[in-house]
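Follow-up to my earlier ticket, as requested here are the two runs.
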Amino acid sequence: MPDITTILRRDPNTGTANLLAFAEWLAQPTTPCGLIDIQLPHPPTPATLRWLALLLREELAGTIYQPGNTQFVIVVPPGAPATQVAQIERLQTLLHRQAQRLDLSTIPVIRYHHVPADSDPATILQFLIPDTADPGTLLNRLIAQLAALGATLNDQHQFDLDPVTGLPNSFAARQRLEELILTAQRQSQACSVLLMNGDDLRRYNEMSYAAGDQMIRDLATVLREQLRPSDFLARWQTGDQFLAVLPNTGVSGAAALAERLRQRVIERSQLWPLPITISIGIASIPQHGHTAGIALHIAAAALSQAKAAGKNRIVVGRPN
């Protein structure tokens, strides 16, 4: 489970490392590496930034930093010049192909820089500004980014919320799950976990990433409407995955509720652009273990089984 120091170094919208994390990387002695610098000409919407970050995570093997709202910097292992050129061309082709889905009116500028060992921060920063910019421009830009980061850190509430659905995010969900399990153990009651994943997000993303976000919001609404007031619902990790915690509920009650959710999603989504289904993995305390980590592990394994068995189904986990 990430601690608060890790959370404060992540952008709450994209999940990438933020300016604070980037500054800490700059301050460390550097080993030879490559920098892929992606600069957008205009500040995009939060949704565009979020989906662009997801594409970069899928495409590139490296640490992704987001120093500001118009730039991503990816630290990658050094490579041969031909490999570097091919990587940049592949990324440019991907962004051209995905421009409409990402709602990008202009394709970002992508540059590669080789960073020698023991490069100082000023040298590295010079790589990351346009060739026509002067040191004053760089200083003004860094000050503006630091001020924006300060405003972000002042709003602690956002670190607990998922930006797409407004539900609690994975960090808040893990904390709440541990609290509910402790309460259940003190009261000698059961507590169950539903790990739910939509089966059709890719089809929506093929329409547009905005359509994918809207489907995730609609799915969250359906799930929330069917849960009881005492139940807890959060968006889990990325994509269309959700976590529900059911206090005072054993395996049989959790399975019955899961089936109601599965059926309701099928019914409600008939009115959406594309009907969808969900798969659900179930774990319960104390039947499957005594900690949040064990419950999540078993529920995740059960969800994987549901997906592998053909999706649109419920699987109850097995104790380790």
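Run two:
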Amino acid sequence: MSAQNSANLEGHLFEKILAQLYMDLLSGAGPGNTRAQVQDILASLDHSLGIQRPSPEEMYTWAEQRLELDTDIKGDVAYRVLEEVIAFSQGKFGEAYADKLRYRIEILFADLLENEERSLPEKEREQLLNIVINDILALGPLEPILADSSVTEVMVDGPNKIYIERQGQFEDTAQRFRSAAHLMSIIYRIVTPMGRRISESNPIVDARLSDGSRVNIVIPPISLTGPVITIRKFARNPLSLEDMLNYGVLSAEMAQFLRACVIGRLNILVSGGTGAGKTSFLNVLAHMMPDNERIITIENAAELQLPESKKYVVTLESRPANAEGKGEVSIQDLLVNALRMRPDRIILGETRSGEALELIQAINTGHDGAMTTVHATSAPDALHRLETMATHHASTMPVLAIREMIAAAIDVIVQVDRLPDGSRKVTRVAEVLGLEGNVVVMRDIFQFKMIGREEERVVGRHLPTGIIPQFLTRIQAYGVELPLSMFTPR
């Protein structure tokens, strides 16, 4: 079957099955006021989203015509009908709603194919059934992509373009949405369970999927491409230190050194550009923390995955304002509150606003052993970014005073970069010595030296610079001894 014919059949089956599910909803037994309650809830939601929900009469007419006619009926009514079917089923069956609907979909699918003039091979029948089930119960064409463990990023640029990142390289996919309305229905399905709202008046949303994957969504009018989704997949089995050693992200000596820094309660800043692997590396560092410490993690979307052996972990997640502009809980709010929660360690997923000053002040008042990440292209740039963020939210404080606080707070900077071949490397581990005059002084302990390229891959080595860090005595106070030979230059 050609791709076009397959797409037409998918849409045909999807709408026929959906129309029958809607008719089942109208005729099925259940609490008499359930459907009215569902309609009220959805109408309230649509009002906040700026959507005009069709009347019950319009939806009934659509379903009736769709069952009688074999031609596609234009319009977005199908996706409003789908939302009502899902919401009603959830209210009626609770957590078992997906199994109930799946069973009914399979029966309707088999009946419809029996009435089709064409016969399909078993493999194609199974693929079509999965597509229909994904459209009704899951994330449509995104579902098989998200199930592929080798995919690290998913990018949707309008309904007709879906591409992925695999092993650091972009690849096009054959998956497509049927229309912008189809894509928007999946977007609503992503953001609504998170309590997020997206509309023309609020066209940018950050959210996460149930597996922890980070999602950014931009819709018209600010996106001229159409609805855009960017998904940063968070591995079901996050990268371990051993994985990173095997991939050459860092050397064994660097790993030993950083483990000592974590146990020695040094304050670590992980710096890098977009997609460099900052959060993954922060997660590896967090695994090095002692199991008997109370750890508070603070993130916009919870991504850090600490092992069960860490028994005293509290995960905090920020919350945006609701449709009325109320209820926002910022990262800065969470950080201020975390200081009252008796933390042994504070892990800030990313520092990008006023929380920079709060974190620096917390570290300098005794909350050592903290970790965070920042978007920056180099270690000096990372400190400059912290200074800029802190200064912006403390305009009355002298810049030199803020710079001095930063120099006293941060002990180690780990620079993580994505190289031209798509691989990720720790390219620099630097010690912050303090402020001399008006300048923050730092020096590299380890560096990545690029040698050349082999078969399109970057080749290089992680090497010590010969500098022995001044904070060794602080680490030794926690019972950790590092051989001085690891710092010998090669």
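The only thing I checked on run two: The mean pLDDT is 88. Let me know what else you need.
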